[in-house]
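Below is how a single chain appears once it has passed through the pipeline. First comes the sequence as given, then the structure the pipeline wrote out for it. We keep one example in the README because the format questions we get most often are answered faster by looking than by reading.
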Amino acid sequence: MAIIESVRWSPDGDAVRIIDQTQLPATLVERDLRSIDDVCDAIARLAVRGAPAIGIAGAMGLVCSLVPFAREGREAFGTRLRAYAERIRATRPTAVNLPRAIERVLARASEVAGSSSTVLEALRAEATALLEEDRAMCRRIGEHALSLIHDGSVVLTHCNAGALATGGIGTALAPIYLAHEAGRRVHVYIDETRPLLQGSRLTAWELSRAGVRVTVIADGAAASLMRAGVIDLCIVGADRIAANGDVANKIGTYAAALAAQHHGLPFYVAAPSSTLDPSLPHGDAIPIERRSAAELASLGGARLTPPEVDVDNPAFDVTPAEMVTAIITDEGVYRRPFDFGGNRGRPGDRGDQGGFTSMTSMTSTTSTT
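Resulting structure:
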């Protein structure tokens, strides 16, 4: 399969090489991020996006931005490191992966003795570990969820939770890639995902490039397809999951979950365990990023709304835990009632009464025809 790499080191190791997702699907453009301005700009304007990918790009970008200062004194270097880390951390507030990746790099810096260049090499190793762990994480999510995707399954997904959003094969798209690899026929319906069209521009591009059958639909068409019996199951990603299992994901996810619940369809969330945030008791505590009105009020430079009207452009919404059939992580599959408050279950702890279940106990209502 032709699965792309959305974020990696440049050949010289002094830059983060990303696929500029603002140019897709028309042109495949790769950019090298070297300076702190490069990194913050790329994350803020969604040249690199997806909760796991921005965490990795943020950590790697922090390292690259410090390369010109490797000869600074340790105190000055430490001050610069913390300032740059805070700038990167502030670019996208909703996804928990970014601050966690930055905190992990900062923690590593505090453990290392020696010169600034010695610290920088340790930070590079830590950022590389984040990338490699993410690749392995994606594969494990796909393996845990593979039993959901039968031969002939028709899947609905929203936004992009694939290779473009991670360092590996994705989260919500990982089981689709593995099912396709295993020779199963899978048909994926993709919500276009207004206003920035991550579904029609990105998910459709990467799945079709890998040979998976895809159909793009308007966001508002999903419910009618469910009513017509076309869709077997829904799988989406997540940017943050609260302790009670409430899920923050791209705006429009809640509407898809409502429709799935009404039509009796399973609604699965696939995300790395790093997306679980036990510090937030419920979804109302998740910070929701508000983006520029221009993203919603214009398209291709043409104005879509009267200039005198207000525009509200939340980038995410929250799907209540009771609408989520299961949460699939790299650790395994969690069923309701969810409890990610620090004492979440492990295999066998709670069985079918909730908490963690092994992938072998996971079933779905997908069609096998």
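The first helix runs from residue 36 to 44.

See the next section for the split statistics.
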